[in-house]
Specification:
Layout (H helix, E strand, L loop, with lengths): L6 E5 L4 H12 L3 E6 L2 H11 L3 E5 L5 H15 L4 E4 L14 H11 L1 H17 L2 E6 L13 H21 L4 E8 L5 H9 L3 H9 L10 H12 L10 E4 L12
Parallel strand pairs: 1-2, 1-4, 2-3, 4-5, 5-6, 6-7
Helix pairs in contact: 1-9, 3-5, 4-6
Amino acid sequence: MRLKDKVAIITGAAAGIGAAAAEIFVREGARVLLADRNGEGIAALAEKLGPNAASFVVNVADSAAVKAMIEDATSRFGRLDILVNNAGYGIPGSVLDTSEEDWDALMGVNLKGVFLCSKHALPVMIAQGGGVIVNTASNVATNIAIYDRAAYCASKGGVAALTKAMALDHADQNIRVNCVAPGVTWSTYFDKMVGTTPDPEAFKAKLQGRSPMHRWAQPAEIAQAILWLASDDASFATGSMLTVDGGMSSWCGAPR
């Protein structure tokens, strides 16, 4: 049990990668606070996972709400060893097509949310002598981009840079900070898109065609990477980005 006696917060835990990480963390011995805007989703998952899971409704772009989340975890479980900053979403649009309001809202969750959750979690970790932060970035964070997702690409690039900055700033305090960089991973987001597209099979084929493995990832595959970064198995890893994208970022043949 790689996380035995550890306490973790996972944001964006109601579905997808966050929910898969929560299931694996509990199975590996952690006590986990599931955090999300979707109160019904995290409550149902917490009930499924049993006494080592609890839920907390939060908007990660709201500093007061994030502070309350950290206080809830520490008062409930007594400490905080792991923070998984997974909450995030994407919107279509180039710079020209993206409104200022949509840009600000996305940055508030995808990038400011990482900042706020880390800002309020770090003092707890420092006081107890160490901890681990794992951020969910994306394979679009550094060397590649995808069409028609300008705000999303920018936000995930910011997550990757912030990860490195925090790793440097807090290495002397026994705090490791890393990020995972998924490729296309099936989620409720894609479920909704499939439901609105005129040709669902063509849409799925396009997603699968982005990877030389000709498939998308399952959330549990990304959650396993998060588990490794969060565990003592990754004890010498900090400031790193673990890319788990089926080879997409190494493949110049990826279609539009």
